[in-house]
Amino acid sequence: xxxxFNWSLLLGAAFLMATSAxxxxxxxxxxxxxxxxxxxxxxxxxxSIILDIGAQMxxxxxxxxxxxxxxDIANMVFPGLGYFLALLTVIGGLAFNIGNIAGAxxxxxxxxxxxxxxxxxxxxxxxxxxxxxxEAGKAMDRFTQILGFLMIGLTLYVAIKSAPPVGEVVxxxxxxxxxxxxRAAFFMAIVTLVGGTVGGYITFAGGHRxxxxxxxxxxxxxxxxxxxxxxxxxxxxxxxxxxxxAFGVVAAGLALDPKNPPASVFKxxxxxxxxxxxGVVMWAAAITSVVGSAYTSVSFIRTFSEKLEKNHxxxxxxxxxxxxxxxxxxxxxxxxxxxxxxxxxxxLPIALGIMLIAAYKSNIVGNYKHPLWLTIFGTLVVxxxxxLGGVTLFKEIPKLFM
Length: 402
Description:
This protein has a single domain (12-401), classed as Amino acid/polyamine transporter I (Up-down Bundle). With 402 residues, it is an all-alpha fold. The protein is built from 17 helices and no strands. The protein is globular and about 60 Å long.
């Protein structure tokens, strides 16, 4: 495999993971939490990046070395565990995808005045077109890369226009000031960000993509590590830029619209042009997440039978159609986007815990020796996310429904 093609695949996997994470929920969560915690949200982003890297490096390496998808690894750790993991992941992926479809419809509504549901249907057809192409993998890689760069560039423009007090952000990123009564909510923000970045299906998106592209085995580990960290850094750049844009608005004393927090960030920072840019960013974020969610969720069930493997492309298309039908019939509120991110954060310690056990089973990884520091790093992530997830589950999630 030549180096140019190899690098293209690695970047494609990184962007698939990153753009899967950067969806409507990502935009909503970042805006809502910035208005809630102001400059202190910088610490939440920093903590989530560290936890994200710990999760990604472990999971992608173990998938590459075992040359198996996550559900098959889980079934080898304990019979039936892979089916349970697949069920959790597919349900989470479907829930996220309904929000992604809604976001794509909203993007078209802002850009062209098109009815949101009509925009959602048109967007779904575009996503389906990618999977109908002969080179679906390459088309998906290129699509996510182009729109990923576009999102970051446009949001950076809005961040510059909003002129946030960067000095305060730097200080609070390393020394946050959070009152006792707000700490549980602060923990929930970390869980939600980690869940929205590497929770549920997202953490496996790039790893499964590299496997499909033939980048696997111990010799591929340096490339796999580079790709996994690149995916997190791309997501972190977008999160930071959006946070700065939102904080500039909040620091100026302006209030975000609770019905559509990210749209108000763009409009308050850059006027009507900003609002149109929001339409582009929302559509790009949503449509790339539709593609990533459908591809990865189906990758969790396709190995369970030859029929599923043979027809996986059509199952992906069915997954997109199902998400669209549910949105058109039911809709999707802002609170649910935050809830799904938090719940996906609860799936992460289960999935990562399974992978860490698998790393020490020779029938799964052969003669591979998993680095001790990665095991410690991964175990810390499992512990921290289990604790924060418990606090979120019992203290904060119920508040969303009060």
